[in-house]
Amino acid sequence: MEIKTSNPEHEEALHAMVRSFCPEARVLESHSGHINYELTRVRSCAGGGAAAEARANTRLGCGRLQEVSLAQVFATVEAERGALEVIDYAVSQTSLEQVFLGFAKRQEESQQ
């Protein structure tokens, strides 16, 4: 999830907002009011069944995680958009490039 605010002073409030619907959210990048989060479990209407959920839980290395719906994400951001001066936001699946870059970054950090 990416959020852009016109006022970087709202970053802490944005973190609190995101954690209100996804406590496991992790900040990947944050600079000048542009914040990129990793949301661990977001459920869309597409579903995927118990097998997909089990694979996701195994991949994340944890047991049962709280699920948050996309509708809840959008409703929360829209409700706070004006107060937090959010000028743009997006929710998307992780791209293959992002997975590769994250893997490369972790490998580099472990070698130092």
What is the topological layout?
Blueprint: E1 2-5, H1 11-21, E2 26-31, E3 34-38, E4 42-43, H2 49-60, E5 68-69, H3 70-80, E6 86-90, H4 96-111
Parallel strand pairs: 4-5
Antiparallel strand pairs: 1-3, 1-6, 2-3
How would you characterize this protein structure?
This protein has one domain (2-111). 45% of the residues lie in helices and 21% in strands. The relative contact order is 0.20. Strand 2 (26-31) and strand 3 (34-38) form a beta hairpin. The strands form two sheets. Strands 2-3-1-6 form a four-stranded antiparallel beta sheet, covered by helices on one side. It has 112 residues and is of the alpha+beta class.
Helical percentage? 40-55%
Order of helices and strands: EHEEEHEHEH
Shape: globular
Structural class assignment: alpha+beta
Domains (count): 1
Keywords:
112 residues, alpha+beta, two-stranded parallel sheet
How would you sum up this structure in a few lines?
The chain has 112 residues and is of the alpha+beta class. It has one domain. Helix content is 45%, strand content 21%.
